[in-house]
Fold this protein.
Amino acid sequence: MKLIAQLVVFLTIACQLILAQEIDESQLKCSHAKTAKAMFTNYAAPSVTQADYDVTFYDIDLKIDPAPETISGSVGVQGISLVSSLSMVELDLYSGLSIESIKNEQGDILNYVHDSNLLSITLNNPVSNGNNFNIIIKYGGKPPVTGFGSFTFDQYNEEPMISSLSEPYGARDWWPCKDTPNDKADSVDISLEVPTGLIAASNGKLVNTEINGEWTTYHWQERYPIATYLVSVAIYPYTVFYDWYKYSPIDSMRLEYYVFPDNYDKVQNNYSLTKDMIGAMADRFGEYPFIKEKYGHAEFTWGGGMEHQTLTSLGGYSEGLIAHELGHQWWGDMATCASFQHIWLNEGFATYSEALWYEKRDNNVQSLHSRMNSNKYYGSGTIFVEDTSSVGSIFNGGLSYAKASWVLHMLRHIVGDSAFFAGLQEYGDRYRFKSVVTEQFRDVMEEISGMDLDSFFERWIYGEYYPIYNVTYNFSNNSLFVLVEQTQASEIFKMPIDIKATFTDESELIWIVENTIRKELFTLPVPEGKIIQKIEIDPDDWILKKVDSITIDEQIDTTSSTGIPTEFHLYPVYPNPFNAGVTIRFTIENEDDIQLNIFDIKGNSVWQQSAKYSAGNHFVKWDGRNLVGDKVPSGTYIVEVSNGTLVKTEKMLLLK
Ligand SMILES: [Zn+2]
């Protein structure tokens, strides 16, 4: 989801921009009466007994009448018992909707209590572990408008415009469900009966349209697993048009666009980018997840976008908004945060997807950096959402969106492009159509990169603020001494930092140092004959940080032991993949005899070196040649660094 403008709602209504880049063409809505209650929800802590069953299927069949602004119909709920004797099924449903009847599939009436937005249904016969139940609830009434507009009867150009936006807790405002993102239904049927002339769009595929005089029924089927908050309706006398995403030489998926007739011309330019965006994201994340169904946009009157599965609802048509919501089809829809405490797994990823699109579109990493520059957030608070009863906390633009996108950006630089994107694909594969928490993402990235990322996630997701660096340096005897100090009041950030030197002959060199303590001295080897003109810290802006000052200081105590590492460690090689040469970086605690070996993927030794190394950081260059000086072929190689007792390895890829 993305707000073009966030509405500040505590009795006074004012406009606050949280994502300024979307403002240029936004339809700012500052005075909708509905928004006065926009942040209130029917949220209640999840019912404990809901964990007793797993939902498999919802059959939603609703008549939607714009004149009295009511809905009526039925929802079938099928599930599997996860306990030895399931006697009660609890569903979330707004108490103001009235129940007509609740039956099982044999047609027996079931008793229920409907109170405090919870519908507790007693099964006639308890269901044992692994067995199914099937309940049909007939109900109706006028849904409330909570959250961002869970179910809204609006008008656009004097025509009825009806839409849903259920995230985070609004599905229960209009249909009975187990309203938590950690139990996806395997599939959903959605039948929408609306006055003839209106078009009802929803998730999945449209399998049938039946006109019955003054009423028309649109029958949609979503056959991929879906979270309750992603089930949607968008109803209007739309202009409908199509495009195609070609995902193989012979296969295409239809893109379906439901637009307000007066916007038809305006949306064309940016909508036409969608197919390229899908291709670009498929390259990075794996194929579009709902490829057998569709992707599309349906316009609605809310000032932003919402990533409804297979059919995003849009209240604008900027390129960034389109990219953001598309990114969510992978991150949010395919892999869904299991609780809104981890919403950054949806919103941070979608925000980074925007930046990745600009990088790909322009084929220029500078486009990525300039986009990320506009996502810098230096305020307080943790990305992990402590209070999920507050919609404002969940969708905090600075934390859940902007800073969270920086977490991915930083991670990308730490593990390197190949591990980062391989990690994203593995994460997507492993949690396809499932729900996830931060630690599952972390574990995948650790596995793929071979790095320990605990402190990175702990500090950036569960901690506050950002590092402020104060740097002093001097230069003597072919060594650059750099003293890095973190001066922020909050805890330190253990991060690798790029240190770039520009020499008097205008050549440049970048070292990566592993900064793990508040004040740390690094001794960096400078090539013979080079004289340092200036140094920079993180020159390409891969860390969300501030730099206090960088000054020359002749007084640095270069014998200080602060830079001595406390363990034997081999870092990922850099760059990776590589072509001309690769830098192998390791640290040792004490002076030691170190053996370096490089093997090909079959275990054949291609290069080796034995030498005595002093305590500290070391950088060894390998030029991709074997011991007799011949260039080795492209492929995966393994570098092994050993001190006789400990052996560390890293993978690297040589590309030609
Ligand atoms: Zn979003």
User: Anything to note?
Assistant: Residues 6-38, 560-565 have pLDDT under 50 and may be disordered. Residues 1-2, 324, 328, 347, 350 surround zinc ion (CB under 6 Å). The chain has five domains: 3-37, 48-237, 331-462, 468-563, 569-654. The CA atoms of residues 195 and 602 lie 68 Å apart.
